[in-house]
Specification:
Elements (H helix, E strand, L loop, with lengths): L1 E3 L2 E2 L8 H5 L2 E9 L2 E2 L2 H15 L6 H12 L6 E7 L16 E7 L8 H4 L1 E5 L19 H7 L8 E5 L5 E4 L3 E6 L2 E5 L9 H13 L3 E4 L3 H5 L3 E6 L3 E8 L2 E2 L4 H12 L5
Parallel strand pairs: 7-8, 7-14, 11-12
Antiparallel strand pairs: 1-2, 1-6, 3-4, 3-5, 5-6, 8-9, 10-11, 10-13, 13-14, 14-15
Bound molecules: pyridoxal-5'-phosphate.
Length: about 270
């Protein structure tokens, strides 16, 4: 089921600024047993994105009602919400008081081999770099050309690709955040210049605190990944994927990954 501004349908105007400029935001939520998980966290991130882009945030109760209809009764595995600055006159200048476009899509579960969370995944290092821009860092905005270009670098030989910024710092992967384990500390790149501040990344950091595992946000390079005691990737739909191969090297799987996955599953209260 797809709703555009609350109405069933799958069309937007050709003048929509989301299409023309990527002028908007999106959220992907996991749905289990007809319920969207971590709803409040997604709403909070979208509201923060709205603040950053100067977009009016629709009432979360309206999102909620539409999300519930889009989940419907079918076998829904995910929800995608999109918010754009709406159809506008020509030119970049953002209209005052825009009539935003709100899109809610119920999606089937992703068709992926089972058990990657246990077996681990193979990742490459992408040639495409992430540009550094603190004004957009962390925001889940609709400009995803860097990810599109990066994902075009491989077919099926890898599960994910790690992306560096233009200063050779490791940031994240094309559709997931990255963690490395060093000296029994859970480390993840800071996202003050680029990258998406993942909901799952935040949940993993909280789970680590609850387990008494030391954490550190820092600046890391490829050599740090190669020397790590373990690497893993996170996003809303995969939760945690341990990395078993980084380009042509195998990577140890740290026992910390299993503890964190268990803690995440326990915390899956949908809040
Ligand atoms: C570029 C990028 N980074 C990170 C993430 C992970 O974010 P989350 O944990 O909120 O799904 C995503 C999710 O789609 C993403 O597209």
């Amino acid at each position: 089921v797809i709703l555009v501004n609350g109405q069933p349908g799958d069309c937007v105007m050709v003048t929509d600024r989301g299409l023309a400029y990527g002028d908007g935001l999106f959220e992907t939520l996991a749905v289990r047993d007809g319920r969207a998980l971590h709803w409040d966290r997604h709403m909070t991130r979208m509201a923060a994105g709205c603040e950053r882009l100067g977009l009016p945030m629709p009432d979360p109760r309206q999102w909620r009602a539409e999300a519930q209809s889009a989940i419907g009764t079918q076998d829904c595995g995910a929800l995608k919400l999109m918010l754009t600055r709406g159809a506008g006159p020509r030119g970049y200048r953002p209209p005052r008081g825009p009539a935003t476009t709100r899109i809610v899509m119920g999606l089937p579960p992703v068709d992926r081999p089972d058990g990657l969370g246990e077996t681990g995944v193979d990742v490459c290092i992408c040639r495409t770099r992430l540009g550094r821009n603190p004004a957009l860092a962390g925001v889940k905005h609709l400009n995803r050309l860097e990810q599109v270009m990066a994902r075009g670098e491989w077919d099926d030989e890898y599960h994910e690709g790690i992306m560096l910024d233009t200063e050779d710092l490791v940031i994240e992967a094309t559709m997931s955040n990255l963690f490395l384990i060093r000296d029994d500390t859970l480390c993840t790149p800071v996202l003050d210049q680029c990258g998406v501040a993942g909901i799952t990344r935040a949940r993993v950091m909280e789970a680590a605190h609850a387990l008494g595992i030391p954490t550190r946000e820092g600046r890391f390079r490829v050599r740090d990944l190669q020397e790590a005691e373990g690497l893993f990737l996170t996003n809303t739909l995969i939760d945690i994927w341990p990395v078993r191969r980084l380009a042509d090297r195998s990577v140890p799987v740290s026992p910390m990954v299993g503890r964190l996955r268990e803690a995440l599953t326990r915390g899956e209260d949908g809040a």
